Recover the amino acids of this structure.
């Protein structure tokens, strides 16, 4: 997946949080900017060749955490703690690697509250585990893994700390919930975080990792992000719910980027971004909303308990609930009259740190692919279409109208933007958030007609110099679909058939397949076939160079590592939740742990 500006769940999220107009705007627009940026903000521009090392296999057995590499097994922690907080069936999570995989940070002593002990270890020359701190709730690390920033829980609430490889420093104690968001620069030299002031506003604070050099980078802001090596990007929101997007260069010069900002997503390189700006407010809401309960509500009166009595108490409660819904509808009607005209789409811009480029209008969904944003997929709404109307009874706030309208089937069209080229996708009902980008070939896969179970029809799109060269529509409904090396494509149909697509030709390789992973470097597919519903075990097979080979039997889970290395769980016992962990390395399989509870996610 690429970084995305996902608007789909905005209405649902907004219903849960209605504290302030500023916060409401950020959630309703569907850009939880912290989550979007957190995944990419720590990556520095690729200005040097990184010699990436092999990751060790990390797993849990007997409630202890172990690491297995070419030197054998090493215990990292004696007590993992609450398994519900770090594991999900066969695999666990919580480990973080630096850019060349030479340093791994991990969690242990995980409590019911979700706090944990944070430690780190070298994966190349093991010389012991370095314990950083306890009661940690979240952390970030520098690119080289030598520094970190983290938040821990203490008796007074929460505190922000830094770690420089020698020790920890208190950056700020007793932080509030708004200060929860922080970023460590890629070089690990500075920490940026939000700090609540006495008047309730938020300032962006810049401080060195050792706690020195504390300065206010930007005042009275609501969120921020770093364009590494260039500038600080941040947003301010007005009382009417609209936002302004600013940049601050290294000399402290502030520049307005957008005055109706709705969200931002950084490229993986952090040397550019796209952002949304509110569209022109010229759509009459009554053109898209039908007051379907107008006549019913006109004569509805609040129910009186005396008219029902104790014997009809259930009827009274039902009538009361209906009247509450009527009051909600009245509130929506008032909103519409007060804000009769609205914009239902957003304008999409690209910002490279110097100039702003307008990419598209009436945008309702965005996803960005590639380190430099090579491809930007968008859904554009066609608000001129007749026929589709939103029922007022389905609304609890007019802010939901853009999303309800945009996600109506047929109301939006999908486009690919590459450079200054914007090409329409010939197929409708494409879910761009379920799209896949293959960096090796530059090809894309679109998911069409995705249902509630995640089943869809794949469309493989071959690109040539930013334009669509060829579509390959697959009529099979599929569960899994992946590129597996240099544009090669494979999928598993809902009937369990493993099929590859090669130059437009489909080849079936196996049947009754239940799970599939790929190794792009080795151009191989690993999958489990003939899995029993009684004990969740089946045959682990590999498809490589057009040939299928059985790796092992009695397998329940497999995860590809890289370059012909995979890890899998065999002899899984559902009652105990334990199984044996094996590693398969270019044709050779061996057991590395017996009766393990999970293997940590290798991705």
């Amino acid at each position: 997946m690429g970084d995305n500006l996902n608007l789909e769940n905005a209405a649902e999220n907004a219903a849960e949080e209605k504290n302030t107009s500023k916060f409401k705007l950020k959630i309703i627009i569907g850009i939880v900017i912290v989550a979007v940026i957190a995944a990419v903000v720590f990556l520095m521009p690729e200005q040097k060749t990184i010699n990436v090392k092999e990751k060790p296999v990390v797993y849990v057995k007997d409630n202890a955490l172990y690491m297995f590499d070419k030197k054998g097994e090493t215990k990292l922690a004696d007590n993992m703690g609450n398994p519900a907080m770090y594991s999900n069936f066969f695999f666990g999570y919580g480990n973080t690697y630096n850019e060349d995989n030479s340093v791994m940070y991990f969690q242990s002593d995980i409590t019911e509250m979700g706090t944990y002990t944070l430690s780190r270890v070298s994966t190349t020359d093991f010389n012991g585990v370095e314990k950083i701190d306890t009661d940690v709730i979240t952390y970030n690390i520098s690119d080289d893994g030598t520094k970190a920033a983290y938040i821990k829980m203490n008796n007074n609430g929460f505190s922000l700390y830094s770690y420089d490889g020698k020790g920890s420093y208190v950056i700020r104690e007793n932080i509030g919930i708004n200060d929860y968001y922080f970023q460590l620069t890629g070089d690990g030299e500075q920490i940026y975080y939000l700090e609540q002031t006495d008047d309730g506003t938020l300032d962006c604070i810049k401080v060195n990792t050792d706690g020195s050099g504390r300065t206010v980078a930007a005042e009275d802001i609501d969120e921020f992000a770093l364009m590494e090596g260039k500038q600080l990007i941040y947003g301010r929101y007005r009382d009417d719910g609209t936002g302004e997007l600013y940049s601050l260069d290294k000399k402290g010069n502030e520049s307005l980027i957008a005055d109706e900002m709705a969200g931002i997503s950084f490229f993986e390189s952090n040397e550019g971004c796209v952002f949304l700006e509110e569209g022109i407010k010229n759509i009459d809401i009554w053109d898209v909303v039908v007051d379907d309960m107008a006549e019913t509500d006109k004569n509805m009166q609040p129910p009186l308990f005396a008219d029902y009595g104790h014997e009809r108490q259930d009827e009274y409660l039902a009538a009361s609930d209906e009247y509450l819904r009527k009051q909600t509808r009245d509130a929506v009607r008032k909103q519409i009259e007060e804000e009769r005209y609205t914009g239902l789409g957003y304008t999409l811009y690209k910002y490279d740190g110097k100039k702003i480029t307008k990419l598209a209008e009436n945008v309702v969904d965005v996803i960005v692919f590639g380190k430099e944003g090579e491809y930007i997929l968008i859904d554009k709404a066609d608000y001129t279409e007749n026929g589709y109307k939103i029922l007022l009874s389905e609304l609890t706030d007019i802010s939901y109208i853009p999303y309800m309208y945009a996600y109506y089937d047929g109301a939006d069209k999908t486009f690919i933007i590459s450079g200054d080229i914007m090409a329409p996708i010939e197929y409708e009902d494409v879910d761009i958030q379920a799209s896949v980008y293959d960096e090796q070939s530059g090809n894309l896969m679109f998911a069409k007609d995705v249902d509630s179970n995640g089943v869809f029809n794949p469309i493989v799109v071959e690109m040539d110099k930013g334009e669509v060269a060829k579509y390959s529509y697959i009529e099979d409904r599929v569960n899994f679909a992946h590129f597996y090396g240099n544009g090669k494509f494979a999928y598993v149909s809902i009937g369990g058939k493993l099929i590859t697509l090669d130059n437009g030709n489909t080849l079936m390789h196996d049947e009754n397949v239940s799970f599939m992973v790929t190794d792009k470097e080795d151009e191989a597919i690993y999958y489990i076939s003939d899995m029993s519903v009684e004990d969740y075990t089946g045959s682990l097979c590999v498809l490589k160079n057009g040939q299928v080979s059985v790796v092992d039997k009695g397998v329940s889970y497999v995860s590809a590592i890289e370059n012909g290395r995979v890890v899998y769980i065999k002899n899984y016992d559902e009652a105990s939740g334990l199984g044996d962990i094996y590693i398969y390395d270019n044709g050779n399989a061996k057991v590395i742990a017996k009766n393990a509870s999970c293997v940590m996610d290798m991705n």
About this structure: Residues 72 and 592 are 8 Å apart (CA to CA). Residues 313-338 form the longest helix (26 residues). The longest strand covers residues 547-562. Confidence is low (pLDDT under 50) at residues 6-47.
